[in-house]
Amino acid sequence: MPADIPAPAAPPTPAAQAPHPRFAVGVLAFCGVVVAVMQTIVVPLLPHIPELTGATPAAASWLVTVTLLTGAVFTPVLGRVGDMYGKRRVLVASLTVLVVGSALCGASSHIGVLITGRALQGAAIAVVPLGISILRDELPPERVLSAVALMSSTLGIGAAVGLPIAALVVENFDWHTMFWVSGGIGLIDIVLVLAFVPESPLRSRGRFDALGALGLSGALVCLLLAVTQGGDWGWTSGRTVGLLVAAVVVALIWGAYELRVATPMVDLRVSARPAVLLTNIAALLIGFAFYANSLVTAQMVQEPKATGYGLGASLVVSGLCLLPGGVSMVALSPVSARISAAYGPKVSLALAAGIIATGYGVRYFTSHSLWLIVAGATVVASGTAIAYSALPALVMRGVPVSETGAANGLNTLMRSIGQAFCSATVAAVLASLTFRAGGRTAPTLHAYQLVFVIAAGAALLALLVTLMLPGRGPAGAGTVEASRKAPGTLTGGARPAGIQEGA
């Protein structure tokens, strides 16, 4: 029997008639920044969690780990759900989950409740690929690149802004305050989305692939648990090796199933196209290269002066070191869009990878001056802004419009996996190269420099992968207009006979 095909409840609204389209871009970008901030605000609080909650340091570390796990699992899943049942409604649901998670964290000091709340906050990262998909569906072609560039960059902008904000709250207010504030902003986000963001009329065909979603989630959980906890458990321990083996086995079974199902969770045939596959590999490497900048900058400048390289900076000052990078990401998003429009997103991504590698070169040789450290970190962030703007443009060239949410969710997932591997690598390097300074154990300067070299290497690998991408496609490739002309593609304006109304 043919699968039921969800269809839009109303005919499409032309982009020009969308309510307040300019506000829609700003609202979606604001949502992306808020969600990205949620991923980092707990970092300055981690050293204090054991004394504040009575939890062990290992349990406290789960406040970061659990957001990574739930974000990785829910981003591609909710992207697919949005493609099928409505991107705006799924985006609003994601923001609602964020508000609930923030309220749980704000109302309790119990580590179990805090971990649950953080898990819900992590699931909301799906807002970013969903927002990109809405912009692709609703905006006229000439505005898509710049809007998508801004939306994609919110992941980096939020990370740069979140640390100093969290540091200010931790030093001056009750630590629960930042969760209540984040929940309140999440509610404002929901109201703004309902008021200014139209629902996309485009839907993809078929039923939701529940088994595919479970298989993908199982493989990701096994992989990311092994990567994030391997340092504590031991990389050769039974738990770590067992999870890695389980991840491979589950992924192979999942892949075989996805190739057989009529409407897969992830279309592996599309994902295997060089344009899509290489873009996702580049996303993983860019995610690795970018995250090292966020992980080590604040820690490095807080190291005591007795180390010979540390500056003894306060928590707030160390967080502010990343703020110029966040500002540069906002400023460079439209620049990246113009480069992509003129020369293609492949050129933008190659340029970005080169800039990131250059930034780490600056960081390698300028580890004793606060302003030069900030300059190097800002160069890395600038390259990341261009990269994060180019990646969704490359993805959209390679997939049909009916799969935009799932494809961008998968690309965002690859960045998250890159960040997880980066976190594990940085932790291993800083823990293995230490010395005694000022009565405490601290990483050596060489340890930080080694991190910069590894991150620069990841950026150069991303450059090589980018150069292997197919050349710039035709102007209409990957656009809504092209998909509407393609045979067999469901759009908001054409409903084949027998299609059931969607929810």
Notable traits:
two-stranded antiparallel ribbon; single chain; mainly alpha; 2 strands; 503 residues; disordered C terminus; disordered N terminus
Plain-language structure description:
Helices cover 72% and strands 2% of the residues. It has 20 helices and two strands. It has a two-stranded antiparallel sheet. Strand 1 (434-437) and strand 2 (440-443) form a beta hairpin. Helix 1 packs antiparallel against helix 7 (127-138). Mean pLDDT is 81; it is low at 1-18 and 473-503.
Could you give a short description of this structure?
The protein is mainly α and 503 residues long.
How is the topology of this model organized?
Elements: H1 21-40, H2 49-53, H3 57-60, H4 62-85, H5 87-107, H6 111-123, H7 127-138, H8 141-172, H9 177-196, H10 210-233, H11 238-258, H12 268-271, H13 274-302, H14 315-320, H15 323-343, H16 345-365, H17 370-398, H18 404-432, E1 434-437, E2 440-443, H19 445-467, H20 480-485
Antiparallel strand pairs: 1-2
Helix pairs in contact: 1-7, 1-8, 1-9, 4-5, 4-6, 4-7, 4-10, 4-18, 5-6, 5-7, 5-9, 7-8, 7-18, 8-15, 8-17, 10-11, 10-18, 13-16, 13-17, 13-18, 13-19, 15-16, 15-17, 16-17, 16-19, 17-18, 18-19
